[in-house]
Amino acid sequence: MGRNFIRLALALVTSFILPCVALAQEPVATADSGVTAWMLTSTALVLLMIPGLALFYGGLVRTKNVLGTMMHSFAAMAIVGVLWAVCGYSLSFGPNVLGGWIGWDPDLLFLKSLDNAVADGGIPDYVFAMFQGKFAIITPALIAGAFAERVKFRSYCVFITIWMILVYAPLCHWVWAEDGFLFNLGANGAIDFAGGTVVHISSGISALVIALYIGKRRGYPKTAMHPNNLVLTLLGAGLLWVGWFGFNAGSSVSSDLATARALTVTQVAASAGALSWMLIEAIRHGKVTSLGLASGILAGLVVITPAAGVVQVPGAIILGFIASFISYAAIGLKSKLGYDDTLDVFGIHGVAGIVGAIGLTFFIRPEWMAEAAANVAGWSVTDQLIVQIKAVVITIIYATIVTWVITFIIDKLMGFRIDIDDEISGLDSSCHGEHGYGLLNLN
Question: What domains appear along the chain, each with residue ranges and CATH number?
Answer without folding.
Answer: 31-432 (1.10.3430.10)
